[in-house]
Design a protein that fits this description.
The protein is of the alpha/beta class. It is built from ten helices and 15 strands.
Length: about 350
């Protein structure tokens, strides 16, 4: 088993060295960048901007979606209708087409796990019916589709820096519509209590660990505190992250898990065929027992393995493919070369 301080996590730990390196630097100018504290804060302000001139009161969401974004649509008075996905996360295009023929919708598209959706098909539908696309790029900070960066396909898109970069908070909202702009009164804020707890989680005091669990999610959005925290902002704007290095290590770790788990009962996603910058190594456990086995195996080996996502519990929510309830994530965090730890890992 690895030492507790060397735990392999899904998301990178905050990088104190980068903070010291960049804290006293003069801030670089970021032109036309809308930075927020989180993906759902970016989503809220992006949709709010569009609603000022568009009368769209419905959104089509994929059935495989995190509950965290649901409050955004509730706060904005937007009705949620779910569309289904098959076991390879292919969209039910016929259902989407049926809906957009009859009414105005936002259509919410996710680039799952860092891999691009089928943007050729999606844009063909958009060109035919003219609906607005929200692109969820939270998993795909450095992803591409046909050499075009992900985040540039939707009318608006949002990222989640903390999933890939060693920051406390951060998200970029992209508005890909000409002459559509928003005005932000303040760029940064002092880190909140929860952000400070996250900042010092590496030191593992028990009281901090318990607080992290308790405060991990809330269905309330404080839209006044939309800003990125100042510490993360300093790192993000003054540091040049090596995208090629990040992609190469993450993909190497992805291939490690693909090979390591080849004789297990876990099911891989067949649509992932080309090299990309993965957020995680995702797979489907055939049973609840198998899912729990791997999560416990991760705990024993000091590896964060999680069930994803926490699904919505609203009355109208429905997911027809029950296999998608058993998705588990293995970490590919580029701060660890997992292949170097091969001797530690074994399973029955």
């Amino acid at each position: 088993m690895l030492n507790q301080n060397n735990k392999i996590t899904i998301q990178p730990k905050f990088d104190y060295k980068l903070l010291f390196k960049n804290f006293l630097k003069y801030n670089k100018h970021l032109s036309k960048k809308y930075l927020f504290s989180s993906g759902r804060m970016s989503l809220y302000y992006g949709i709010s901007s569009l609603q000022k001139r568009l009368n769209i009161k419905k959104v089509l969401l994929p059935s495989l979606i995190c509950e965290e974004i649901i409050p955004v649509f509730k706060m904005l008075g937007i009705e949620i209708i779910y569309y289904q996905l098959n076991e390879n996360l292919e969209i039910d295009y016929n259902y989407i087409e049926k809906c957009v023929k009859e009414d105005n919708y936002f259509v919410f598209i996710v680039n799952y796990f860092g891999y691009p959706s089928d943007w050729k098909k999606i844009l063909e539908l958009k060109n035919k019916y003219g609906f607005m696309i929200i692109e969820d790029n939270a998993h795909s900070l450095y992803g591409k589709y046909n050499e075009k960066k992900l985040g540039l396909f939707g009318d608006i898109s949002f990222t989640s820096f903390r999933k890939i970069l060693p920051l406390l908070t951060g998200s970029e909202l992209k508005i890909n519509i000409k002459h559509e702009r928003i005005i932000l009164n303040k760029l940064t804020k002092f880190p909140s209590k929860n952000e400070f707890i996250y900042l010092f989680r590496n030191f593992k005091p028990s009281f901090l660990n318990s607080n992290i669990k308790k405060n991990n999610y809330t269905d309330k959005i404080d839209i006044e505190n939309y800003q990125m925290d100042y510490l993360s902002y300093k790192i993000y704007i003054n540091n040049v992250f090596d995208e090629l290095y990040i992609e190469s290590i993450r993909y190497k770790n992805y291939l490690y898990w693909k090979n390591f788990l080849i004789n297990s009962d876990l099911k891989y996603f067949n649509f992932i065929k080309n090299k990309f910058c993965p957020y995680v190594f995702p797979c489907i456990a055939p049973t609840q027992q198998e899912k729990e086995y791997w999560i416990n195996w991760g705990t024993k080996n000091n590896i964060s393995i999680i069930n994803w996502p926490k699904l919505p519990n609203s009355k109208n929510y429905c997911i027809e493919n029950n296999q998608l309830k058993n998705i588990i994530f293995f970490p590919v965090n580029h701060h660890n070369d997992i292949s170097l730890n091969t001797n530690y890992y074994a399973y029955n």
